[in-house]
Fold this sequence. Notes:
The chain is an alpha+beta fold.
Amino acid sequence: MTSTHALLWLYVALVFLAGLALLFSRWGRLAKAAVVLAVTALYFVADHTLAGVWGWPSRDSLPERFVLLAMVVEEPGKKTEGALYLWVNAIDTAKGRPEREPRAYRLPYTKDLHAVLNEGMKKARQGVTQMGTAEPKRGPKGSSWLRPGNDEQEIKIRDLPAPQLPEK
């Protein structure tokens, strides 16, 4: 049994217990309504939280330094805003090497970012490993938490430097 199946059965048991409480308890209508709302809210919170565990692309910020592995482009159309899907390995700053497991990210589509990532993927297809950096975009001074959309990043792609081997 996978962890996903275990979570599913735990939720089924919770719904069953809530159903028993609703049918056979002497709780007032307000308490029963609160149980229904709590179980319903738990479903939506769990669904949103587990989306990242099940492999859906993350909408989180990219790591500060990463190795670009792959990219898929969904260009904007009449009904869609478009997106750039990246598969990257974060670079552990303490060790200076990529982490073991890659992660998928979803970024909003922009022509400039599409061009930068496309150039990086062309070089990657030629066998040149590409390293990316993601830094927060600089904006006007002041309290950054007051400005919506401040989580945008400036992404740069370059060739991964050759590793420095120690002398013998």
